[in-house]
Design brief:
The complex is a heterodimer. Chain A is an alpha/beta fold. The chains are: A alpha/beta, B alpha+beta.
Chain lengths: 94, 362
């Protein structure tokens, strides 16, 4: 006789997000940098920040750091950043 | 893991028990150990016992963002061999792990070999038959094994904690299969863990911390002074490769002989913790020679570099960061204890939840 087995895998929660306005380009747009400052990414990140500031000339630059390399960025800080810049670059070294 | 018809169905048919067990392997519903395929009757028994709706949501489990409904939790509990009475303990452990400070996503995905250690204290330790004597951290008890196993299966099946991707734990440890212990209510000479954690003595409480595998310490409690017992344990906390060099928390498990030695020597629980924190040190020069120290919080590292070479560096920064409990058997001269190092300040930080058992007769 066949046995009915219940599936233990949970459904995946839907992510709700709103579409942001597409940017025509990065030149002259204000930028946010979000980084976890893992030692594996520090040198690359510094170069990336420098090149964006040099080439895109953002009028506003905001930088926020994760509480440590593994903790998520607090949502309130991300929301604040989103209200201040046109785009953000997120870097996570591991 | 898979997108087969079985993966998408709520109930899957198998020809017989052997086929059902193989189906669980094939669908990736187990992490390697065999499971009890979840059928209607034991599942119904758990849900009826809980008195909750099957689609009630306990939380969302990272990194897969799986929805932990009561039904899905109960299915995994059946697979782990849980009696219905165990399931409130599993739910409390899950709720504790979902607190933001625990950083479950990080715990599930870090390269560090830490796993959630479920520590149960309070009246249910005896009521549910947890082992707190010989092999208290090992095998031999259904309650310890099945509850620890259920927690892992939930992290696996609902949370998607699959090794390789996205979980990058480099080594893992045997506690990834099942990692649940209980405090001994009779042999603990001090206030119980649930009271230390801010609950009432008659509450049953689950405390979780993400830690590495237990490292045994022969304290020599039968022949040593309390001070030497503390030094032996502290030395096992303060080793150069410990992630506690980056802060965070650790768990110290005292066997009853070590606990008695300290209690007879006039140490209350707070004094034991304070002394362990004070003694778990290494000279600053040794710590700074290790380039890996760069994971330490930047401000703390700056302060450390200003210190003298022979100043002492503390692995546990404050007393709240050391969880102390008593369990296990008496043994002989060894008077064993165990140290479980934490992940550092990155997450897995200790959380506690009162277990909510359904009202009797409800």
């Amino acid at each position: 006789m066949a046995i009915g087995i219940f599936n233990p895998v949970g459904e995946v929660a839907e992510l709700t997000s709103t579409l942001s306005t597409p940017l025509s380009g990065l030149d002259g747009k204000s930028v946010g940098f979000v980084c976890n400052h893992h030692p594996a990414i520090t040198a690359l990140w510094a170069q990336l920040e420098k090149s964006i500031e040099r080439d895109q000339k953002p009028p506003v630059v905001r930088r926020i750091s994760k509480p440590n390399i593994s903790m998520p960025q607090p949502a309130a800080q991300l929301a604040q950043l989103a209200s201040e810049v046109d785009y953000a670059i997120v870097g996570v070294g591991a | 893991m898979s997108e087969t018809a079985a993966a998408l169905a709520r109930i899957v048919e198998a020809e017989d028990l052997e086929a059902a067990v193989e189906l669980c392997y094939r669908e990736g519903w187990t992490d390697g150990l065999p499971v009890i395929p979840a059928t209607e009757r034991p599942l119904r028994r758990i849900i009826d016992y809980l008195g909750m709706k099957p689609d009630d949501v306990i939380g969302i489990i990272s990194p897969r963002r799986g929805v932990a409904t009561v039904e899905k939790i109960a299915i995994n509990c059946v697979m782990a061999g849980c009696l219905p009475e165990y399931v409130p303990v599993v739910i409390a452990a899950l709720q504790a792990m979902l607190e933001p400070e625990f950083n479950l996503e990080g715990v599930q995905t870090t390269t560090n070999p830490c796993a959630p250690l479920v520590m149960v204290s309070g009246p249910a330790v005896r009521e549910l038959g947890f082992n707190t004597r010989d092999c208290a951290l090992g095998h031999g008890s259904r309650a310890n094994a099945a509850i620890g196993r259920a927690v892992r299966l939930i992290l696996w099946n609902i949370g998607g904690g699959y090794p390789g991707s996205p979980c990058r734990t480099t080594l893992g440890h045997p506690g990834y299969y099942s990692y649940c212990i209980a405090e001994d209510p009779e042999n603990n000479p001090w206030e119980p863990l649930q009271v230390t954690r801010g609950f009432a003595a008659d509450d049953t409480v689950v405390t979780v911390t993400a830690v590495d595998a237990p490292h045994a310490v022969a304290t020599g409690a039968l022949v040593n002074s309390p001070g030497q017992v503390l030094t032996n344990i502290a030395d096992s906390i303060a080793y150069l490769g410990s992630n506690n060099q980056y802060g965070g928390q650790a768990v110290v498990i005292l066997g009853p002989m070590a606990a008695k030695c300290l209690a007879d020597g006039g140490y209350d629980k707070a004094k034991v913790v304070g002394e362990l924190v004070r003694r778990a040190t290494r000279p600053v020069a040794e710590v700074l020679r290790n380039k890996n120290i760069d994971h330490m919080p930047a401000e703390e590292l700056d302060q450390l570099r200003k210190k003298r070479d022979d100043d002492l560096f503390h692995y546990i920064r404050k007393v709240e960061n050391l969880v102390l409990l008593t369990t296990g058997s008496w043994g002989a001269v060894g008077g064993y204890a165990a140290v479980c190092p934490g992940w550092g300040h990155f997450g897995g930080l200790t959380q506690s939840r009162k277990v909510q058992f359904p009202a009797k007769g409800a």
